[in-house]
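Exam prep: given the inputs below (a chain plus D-malate), describe the expected output before reading on.
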Amino acid sequence: MSDFIHQYVPATNGSPWTLLLLHGTGGDERDLIPLGTELGNGAALLSPRGKTLENGMPRFFRRLAMGVFDIEDLKVRTDELAEFVTSSATRYAFDARRVVALGYSNGANIAASLLLRHPTILAGAVLLRPMVPFVPETKISLDQAPIWIGGGRRDPIVTPAQTLELVSMLQSSGAKVDVHWSANGHDLDQEELREAAKWIARIAAFPPPQ
Ligand code: MLT
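Solution:
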């Protein structure tokens, strides 16, 4: 079994949803708990810590340079994360069909990688400042998966062009993508978080995928 150091917070209000919280470079499993609590409408929170270290900073996969990913490592780490989500559903008794990722930066990139490599693990995703993690060799079917993307117009780390490349990849795989542009750079702003929260509340009203 592939385990991660993680935090799990059970659902409140009877929410049947779980948010998979995926932090950015240098973060850890505690980072996104407040954001998940604010945005999740009572959803359970599953928050793993990335297992690779870059100068002591946790990440979800190795990179060779800024924006240049170690694809072999990314694939292995993505598979481990998929396994962790599945085994956590059994361990904590949450509904494996109602897991939505909420990832920021490096966490958004591994969430995108999960969508592309294990399309059935996530029922949807909120990707904050994401880019294309890798280009799949075969056509992926995301079957209307709802995805909310938050890009930063002035982001020097993940440029708008890089985010748009992911948007078109996800759209051509059949996902239902909503894009929001913040006037900020890599840092998030309150207004986009409010919009993301509204979107999560909307998709939480959907019936679970069969
Ligand atoms: C990444 O490495 O995943 C992206 O460049 C974002 C980051 O973590 O800086």
